[in-house]
Amino acid sequence: MKYLKHLSIIIMMLFVSNQMVKAHAIWIESNPIGSKNQSHTIRIYYGEYASGEIEKTKDWYSDLSQLKLNLLDSKNKQVELHLTDKGTYLESSFIPDEDGIYQVFISHPARELGGTTRYEFIAQNRIQVGEAVNYSSIPLDTHFVFTNQVLKVKDLVEIQLLRGSNPIANEEILLMSPSGWSKTYKTNNQGKIQAEVIWPGTYVIEHSHMTDQSGSWNDKSYTKNWQGLTASFQVK
């Protein structure tokens, strides 16, 4: 009897732990507008933005604190940026040397499984320098396309969800505001949503996708693969 009670507690803890992983995500915050030859700061957080939960880096899931941040410039040159642990976030910076759109992104499959689920954490952001609007396609299978500019309260923001160059229709995008308000939208046939932003501050968008997929990861078997994609934008 004691054994069964102990086993039930372990199963419950694993279930709760698994649900916590599903609820959490990484996201990138940075000013969407940069200046040539001036340092531009980027910060990476982990937690639950909708409820204001930001985890200390020492508590990040699995090996997430060891993730890599990549920078892609408008000429398709990609470099890895150095990250500094600031306790509650990872920070990096770069100095843009020409006009164009710079993209920062993360694609990190966690080393540990959550039960029998493999977790992939994906995040992206775009920074515009000068008036140029040309940019290279971001090397992520699934990604967002959205405005680079700082929006104003009551503006409509349009967000498109793509897989490669193809729009993803009838999928959910969660929009989370700095006020704690959040809403889930469904993409149309062009993979787009439109939403009015009514509070100033940083907004985070998220799309997650779970698939039945069997395989081996770090010598452990998994039966499902979860991908969580985020980006952020600013409203003044």
Structure characteristics:
236 residues; 5-stranded antiparallel beta sheet; mainly beta; 18 strands; 51% strand; disordered N terminus; 9-stranded mixed beta sheet
Binned strand content: over 45%
Q: In angstroms, what separates the terminal alpha carbons?
A: 60 Å
Number of helices: 1
Rg result? 19 Å
Give the uncertain stretches in residue-range form: 2-22
What class would the helix/strand composition place it in?
mainly beta
Listing every helix as H and every strand as E from the N terminus to the C terminus, the arrangement reads: HEEEEEEEEEEEEEEEEEE
- Could you give the count of β-strands? 18
Helix percentage range: under 10%
Largest sheet: 9 strands, mixed
- What form results from the Cα inertia axes? globular
Report the average pLDDT across residues. 90
List the helices and strands and how they pair.
Layout: H1 2-23, E1 25-30, E2 33-34, E3 40-48, E4 53-54, E5 69-72, E6 78-81, E7 84-85, E8 90-94, E9 100-109, E10 117-129, E11 142-146, E12 156-163, E13 166-167, E14 172-176, E15 182-186, E16 192-196, E17 201-217, E18 220-235
Parallel strand pairs: 2-10, 10-18
Antiparallel strand pairs: 1-3, 3-4, 3-8, 5-6, 5-9, 7-8, 9-10, 11-12, 12-13, 12-16, 14-15, 14-17, 17-18
What does the model show?
It is a single chain. The chain has one helix spanning 2-23; strands at residues 25-30, 33-34, 40-48, 53-54, 69-72, 78-81, 84-85, 90-94, 100-109, 117-129, 142-146, 156-163, 166-167, 172-176, 182-186, 192-196, 201-217, 220-235. The chain is mainly β. The strands form three sheets. Strands 2, 5, 6, 9, 10, 14, 15, 17 and 18 form a nine-stranded mixed β-sheet that branches. Strands 1, 3, 4, 7 and 8 form a five-stranded antiparallel β-sheet that branches. Strands 11, 12, 13 and 16 form a four-stranded antiparallel β-sheet that branches. β7 and β8 form a beta hairpin. It is globular, with a radius of gyration of 19 Å.
